[in-house]
Amino acid sequence: MRMTICGRAAMAGAAILTLGAGASPAAAGDAAEKPTGLGRFHTQDIDWHDCALSPDDAAGKRLDDAGARCADLTVPLDYTDPGGRTLTIAVSRLRATGPAHRARPLLLNNGGPGGPSLDMPLTVGAAMGEVAKKYDLIGVDPRFVGRSTPLDCGWDVGSSIISAGESRASFQRSVARQRDLAERCRRTNGDVLPHVSTRNTARDMDVVRAAIGAERISYLGYSYGSYLGQVYTELFPGRTDRMVLDGVIDPARYNQTLLADAAGANERALRSWAAWTAARHDTYALGRTTEAVLSTVRRIQRAAVEKPLRVGEFRLDEHSVPLFYFGLLGSDLDGTRAELATATRILQRAAGRGPAAPSAAMTEVLTALTTKAGSHQGSVQTAILCGDVAEKRGVESYWRDIQARRGKAPFAAPLAYNANACEFWDAPAEKPTVVDNDVPALLVNATGDTRTVYSGARQVRERWSHSRLVTVPGARQHGVFGEYGSACADGQVNAYLADGRLPERDVTCRN
User: Which interval of the chain is the signal sequence (predicted)?
Assistant: First the structure.
């Protein structure tokens, strides 16, 4: 599982993300981005090569086996100085196999921020079926992500998103940790951080568009990728064709406490999972009622307050236990729910101070969240968010928000409203983008999404009057297309990608 604040839900171990108002919006005039001085990047020769970097590169080999090719494109670090330092952006391409008259290239983004997307032509191509034959599927690892020029702040953990814990003292410890994480990034990557932003990633996308010889691109972005797609349309109007945004972020609500709007959805998701688990007490032995299962989770959390839980080589304290649960509440599919129930049994043993060995899936999650192995993705994720919208709110404001909401959301509020490293970040180099255009797009969202809440999709739909919204009611799922098994939603996306015609009206999918 990947833990991303706003990444897809197929992530039993994602790097968790959240979406504060901040600096004043950018002027609408910067919609007219000019390629002045960028000609050498737009016309660069592309050296397409094998994707596997070594015999042990399983992901690269899968791309090669599917017939994909990879390349490293050059982009400027600073778009105001195109003659200065450069970066490389890793790109994959799975060529269309249909008739010569095919649709434009389809660029793919997996969310995050900071989610690698190089292998997406394989997963999205499988979901598209025959429609994929009409497209060149383009996976792009955004700047500083995955195989692109890396950024790593040398953290000893994999996420800057943590729970404030139970007490004022634990909140203060979490704040001290955030200050330390921000200082480590400033010390190790201070010259680069001003150029880590969604706006620059959108500019990189346009270099990719030009370099592959496309007048316009189609785009499919999940979660944070929906925000990236919206920013691209604002900076580069008229350069998009078919757009699918799945798990839609309202750009007016994009801020450093990105998960705040989702606190209620996560609280409800936890209760729903507890009901599912209670109905399977004979399998998991965590309680025969919803309240009994929730009591088990509360006992685990209280034990972590007293002393960190020991799970194999890992340690989970009151700050990381809620984060672990959050990562597995991105989907209500049986497989993910079973994974969380199995992990809870292990945590229950750890809370009783008995031997507790993690499962393979649990090991993947805990490695990403609690060790240096997750430092790269956590660093990039935080740098993008803070590079977009870091705002000095004052530490006390977070504590007040947590306390005001703890009663209704005891599990989620200390995580969703807690201070993060953005509080201690340098001010963004550019103001956030105001998305005030109206672009035809297909929007997809589940009503119970625990990352990008459904109200955000509704807001974007109202502003983009030419768009259409596909709703999956009742689903507690983040990332629908190709992820949830909704024949209706998948069919709507594929029909739109096939012929470019949006549904006549919004669609509600009940299967």
Answer: 1-28
Tokens 């702040």 locate to 153
User: Which residues, listed in sequence order, are joined to residue 244 by a DSSP beta bridge?
Assistant: 220, 442
CATH number of 38-150+201-257+437-508: 3.40.50.1820
Residue 339 identity: E
Q: Give the separation between CA 409 and CA 73, rounded to whole angstroms.
A: 45
Q: Which residues of 362-379 are buried (b: 16+ CB within 10 A; e: fewer)?
A: bbbbbbbbbeeebbbbbb
First CA to last CA distance, the chain:
25
What are the structural domain ranges in the chain? 38-150+201-257+437-508
Answer for the pair 226, 442: CB distance below 8 angstroms, yes or no: no
Contact between 365 and 3 under an 8 Å Cβ cutoff? The reply is yes
Beta strand ranges found along 426-497 (DSSP E): 442-446, 468-472
The DSSP call for residue 49 is B
Q: Which residues of 199-230 are buried (b: 16+ CB within 10 A; e: fewer)?
A: bbbbbbbbbbbbbbebeebbbbbbbbbbbbbb
